[in-house]
Design goal:
Shape: rod-shaped
Radius of gyration: 47 Å
Length: about 325
């Protein structure tokens, strides 16, 4: 309230002064603009200050957290792919089967793009490296997400290999519906699509269950497409796993080099301690010898003093006798 009254009084006084005759408006303060320029300069200077090591580590932790989120998404996608494979093995109508296949194709493509993105991001983290305590933290955290990614790739490979085997078993059963007396070579040819179409066509002609045989033939063709997709995915995963294994080997070589250097330092330290112990022992022996020599000299001086005293005493006694 006191501030409001003071502001009102000032406004009233200024109003009175401005309304008076011959009043001249006050000249602008030439230092005001300079003050503003100085303030803007300080703000710009602060905005141009380079990022500190703390900010750099904050961005590193943020990237690690983001990669971990992407790894969770990758694993979730693999679980969904497994569910879609399992659903594909169940008997569905043609529309449902096509819808399931489209979802599977889209999810496999999305997961492939995500895996390539993760590979690039982890490589970029490894390239940055660093030294000292922050560098050690970077290597450790990068190694952890790298290992998690390799484990996720292996899990994806196992899922695809598992359902590839199940698809082949389903194809064998479908072919034996058409030709119950099929030989192992014929079954193998149909499953591996090695002239399997011709063998299946011949079996269809001799089958007495045409409708059921046609449905089995259509499903076998669909399974061939599923297996081809799985083979492509397994090829990409094998290459991805190889790339990540190379990164792990490079990191292991770096760690091995650090460990070797640490062992060399430890050995040098042990040798140095041995020399130090020898030097201490030598110094103690030298001090002991010096003390022994000093005591011997004192004994000799004492003996000499006693002898001199005896000789002088004898000479004095002889002089008195004479």
């Amino acid at each position: 309230m006191a501030r409001d009254r003071l502001a009102a009084m000032r406004a009233q006084q200024q109003g009175g002064y401005n309304s008076g005759p011959g009043y001249q408006s006050p000249r602008p303060n030439p230092y005001a603009q300079q003050d503003e320029r100085y303030e803007m300069t300080d703000v710009n200077h602060e905005s141009n200050v380079p990022a500190t090591a703390g900010d750099d580590m904050s961005s590193f932790y943020s990237e690690i957290s983001s990669i971990q989120d992407s790894l969770r998404t990758f694993n979730d996608n693999v679980s969904r792919i497994s569910d879609l494979h399992s659903r594909s093995l169940n008997n569905m109508d043609e529309a449902s089967a096509q819808r399931n296949a489209n979802q599977l194709d889209g999810l496999v493509e999305e997961t492939s793009a995500l895996s390539n993105e993760l590979k690039v991001r982890i490589k970029n983290l490894q390239k940055k490296g660093g030294s000292g305590r922050d560098g050690h933290i970077r290597k450790q955290q990068t190694g952890l997400v790298k290992q998690k990614f390799v484990e996720a790739i292996q899990n994806y490979q196992q899922v695809e290999q598992q359902y590839r085997a199940k698809y082949k078993q389903r194809m064998e059963r479908q072919f034996k519906i058409v030709k119950p007396d099929a030989t192992p070579d014929e079954v193998k040819a149909v499953v591996n699509d090695d002239q399997g179409g011709q063998i299946f066509a011949q079996a269809l002609q001799s089958s007495d269950r045409y409708g059921e045989s046609r449905a089995a033939y259509r499903e076998v063709q669909e399974r061939h497409e599923d297996i081809k997709r799985i083979e492509r995915t397994l090829g990409e995963l094998a290459q991805l796993f190889n790339d990540m294994s190379i990164l792990v080997e490079q990191q292991d070589e770096t760690i091995e080099t650090i460990q070797t250097a640490a062992m060399n330092v430890e050995k040098d330290t042990e040798v140095g301690l041995q020399y130090t112990d020898k030097a201490v022992a030598s110094a103690r022996a030298a001090r002991k010898k010096r003390w022994i020599c000093f005591i011997i000299i004192l004994i000799i001086l004492a003996i000499v003093g006693i002898v001199v005293g005896v000789v002088v005493s004898q000479n004095v006694n002889k002089g008195k006798t004479n």
